[in-house]
């Protein structure tokens, strides 16, 4: 099954009378998306179009798709801001409900911004993978990243599968010995393999924090009577160190429970939304 994300073209903040684009997504963030996801959709709209770096080459290489959401009528002030924020949710809803592939709404930042009409308040488990995902520097040519992705598809697939298994373990059987469970060990091995191969291939890389909001009410994963138990267990945040290659930033899995504003169209899925951020520190392994 293909893994896809519906991403925002930048960091967009709503204002009382409109919105502000703090910045577009960076070249490094685009390399993060293209390395780890099979399909990347970055919606635009006919009111305000926010371009991304190297857009023409990325579209021509089929790395990203940029569908345009068409809004009819006249928009002013806050209406424009609401429409800009809504277009990601509109496209994500269509793809999530189509059930072809594994689609998740994804934003850069610390938390996901969802239009009010698409919000559902839910108790969730947040899984933070801190300093975990290695990404090539933004100046690495697009084709070099795609070649690496093709050559190392088995390692990348194993990483994705290990993360999914980790999510199942967290939701299905949380306990005090989680750090010693097979799913955690498998994830550590997978991330080490990807990290090592990336460091061997690219001179300069950085690490990304990656966070997922997990659904506590997923049929066949969490029994109804267990959802409250799982939530209560992770009300006290848990941290699990991750083994890293020598010289790398310290990595960690952080687990916490919280009441969240989630993406309503994904309410039956295990993964409700993703956010990610680059670490401030770069790692140079080759000279």
Topology record:
Elements (H helix, E strand, L loop, with lengths): L2 E5 L2 E6 L2 E7 L2 H10 L2 E3 L2 E2 L9 H6 L3 E2 L2 E2 L8 H21 L3 E7 L10 E18 L5 H10 L1 H20 L9 H20 L2 E12 L8 H10 L4 E5 L8 E13 L7 E14 L3
What does this structure look like?
With 287 residues, this protein is α/β, with parallel strands linked by helices. It has one domain. The protein has 7 helices and 13 strands. It has helices at 27-36, 55-60, 78-98, 142-151, 153-172, 182-201, 224-233; strands spanning 3-7, 10-15, 18-24, 39-41, 44-45, 64-65, 68-69, 102-108, 119-136, 204-215, 238-242, 251-263, 271-284. It has a 9-stranded mixed sheet with strand order 6-4-1-8-13-10-9-12-11, with helices on both faces. Strands 2-3 form a two-stranded antiparallel sheet. It has a two-stranded parallel sheet with strand order 5-7. The chain is globular, with a radius of gyration of 19 Å. The N and C termini lie far apart (38 Å). The mean pLDDT is 88.
Strand content: 25-35%
Q: N-to-C SSE series?
A: EEEHEEHEEHEEHHHEHEEE
Count of individual beta strands? 13
Q: What's the number of helices?
A: 7
| Global Rg | 19 Å
- In helices, the fraction of residues equals 25-40%
Terminus-to-terminus distance = 38 Å
How many domains would you count in the coordinates?
Answer: 1
Q: What gross morphology would you assign?
A: globular
Largest sheet: 9 strands, mixed
Mean pLDDT: 88
**Strand line-up of the largest beta sheet:** 6-4-1-8-13-10-9-12-11
Poorly predicted spans? none
* Secondary-structure-derived class: alpha/beta
